[in-house]
């Protein structure tokens, strides 16, 4: 079986390539859930030395100040064929066999991201080392915890480093390799202070004590190494790295390992612990532990991956497909979007979505109420009837019925219907406009395209204005038609009026009150009949001219317009909100990462 560490290594590399190195709350992160060994310690505590011992190579940048300014993800792969080289993820096809060049590349690559400003960056550098002298292991080297910024570095760097280190050690899946120098009181160790905070039970902290050889003569570190000074679940491991003098003399790492082994074997103080000390033992233990942790975490990682894939999938379908580049496909997309809008709009009118019933409300409530409020009482009052009828008679009173008077009263009454008729047309117009607006905002597919939304809304509103004009003309015409030809039958059925006696003619008044009242009431019932007709026909006009047309041809002119557009103008219409485009891209990358990871895990028979 392939090692589980190798599996996590591959997923880790995919994370870096696809921009997941944790901490980015806008997207789900896989990086954070991967078990890894994180090296922490104060400056000069010996972190780099421990890493080099574990690798058996001299490859880390050195110097005063904060040298490590980006996380270094160090993936160790044991080779069986004797091959021995290093590879950076950012230089996929370049094999480094000269480790001095590796050191230089780490420094250069650090500067590439942080600039020469000496700032720190959370973007990791990934380095793989293939060697027969390593165990399978992944270690993350972080900037050393420090108290003071050196010249050229901003003061904030102290907190920034602490923040970055903390973000790594806080992850429950991280194994903390806490480096403390033996020639310093363990109570003041930066590594232990931090580890105690994030892992108070000491369950995932491995204590490493460096510089045992530098302790004052006559003192030893047994209190720490035997777990009495600070208790951890895993036993403390002491190491002896190369001293500065060794480094200056270029003492070979393999020779240094041998010397370390001899140190413990011959030590008066640590002889009894010799088999459980030294960097080789440390590497072996860490490898074994990391493997076990990975194995135990894989089911939950897989569950997380599956859940996240579902979430990303559904977000991607919400965001919609990316837009085609050729004009034909773009036109097709626009027409599809229009169709989607049209569908929603029709649902509003035909039911399925609310809104259409408001039109019926106009016909059923608003129109009758408006008709009822027309001032016919006053218009057909005895005084007004008298005024209109006498004016119509002119100098000669009529002989039988006051024909002209009737006509004038009826025509002037019918003219009152124009107001409610226009109000119906306007009310329907505003409802339709509102439904267009709502349909646009409810058309999921349109959400991404603010420009298209605006143009669609403008075109639809313009079409609705045209329908309103048509509808207004038609409704007015209906009213005018009622005034232009009166239903003769109605009057034939009225009881014939006979002027009684000559007394009326003789009086100054041409009409008796009773006669005028009867005229008023006859006109009123005729107007009532017309009102019934218009109460039915005005809604028909509105539906015919506005609602039916909106359903039929709301976007017709818009279609003609876009048919004439050139490729560039179509692109403008499909101008997406840049945030949406970015988000889609980011989600797609993350999704790819998660799917790759799932495939990777599936392909490893980890059940073994
Ligand atoms: P870092 O800042 O934590 O990475 O520390 P380094 O690994 O660069 O070590 C700081 C200095 O301590 C270097 O000069 C090392 O040679 C020296 N050093 C580290 N570990 C030991 C050790 O176990 N014994 C001795 N004598 N010197 C050590
Ligand atoms: Mg260092």
TrEMBL record:
Q: Which GO terms describe its molecular function?
A: GTP binding; hydrolase activity
A GO biological-process term: cell division
Q: Which InterPro entries does the record associate with it? A: Dynamin (IPR022812), Dynamin_GTPase (IPR001401), Dynamin_GTPase_CS (IPR019762), Dynamin_N (IPR045063), Dynamin_stalk (IPR000375), G_DYNAMIN_dom (IPR030381), GED (IPR003130), GED_dom (IPR020850)
Q: Which Pfam families match?
A: Dynamin_M, Dynamin_N, GED
SMART domains with a match to the protein in the record = DYNc, GED
Q: Which GO terms describe its cellular component?
A: microtubule; phragmoplast
Subcellular location field: Cytoplasm, Cytoskeleton, Phragmoplast
Q: Which residues form the Dynamin-type G domain?
A: 31-299
Chief location bin:
cytoplasm
GED domain residues are 516-608
Would I find DNA-binding among this entry's keywords? no
Instruction: Specify the signal sequence span.
Output: none
Q: Write the record's keywords in alphabetical order, separated by commas.
A: Cell cycle, Cell division, Cytoplasm, GTP-binding, Hydrolase, Microtubule, Nucleotide-binding
Subunit structure of this chain's protein: Forms homodimer and may homooligomerize and heterooligomerize to form the phragmoplastin complex. Binds to PHIP1.
PANTHER family attached to this UniProt entry: DYNAMIN, PROTEIN 1C, PUTATIVE, EXPRESSED-RELATED
Family affiliation: Belongs to the TRAFAC class dynamin-like GTPase superfamily. Dynamin/Fzo/YdjA family.
* Protein name, per record: Dynamin-related protein 1E
Say which species the protein is native to: Riccia sorocarpa
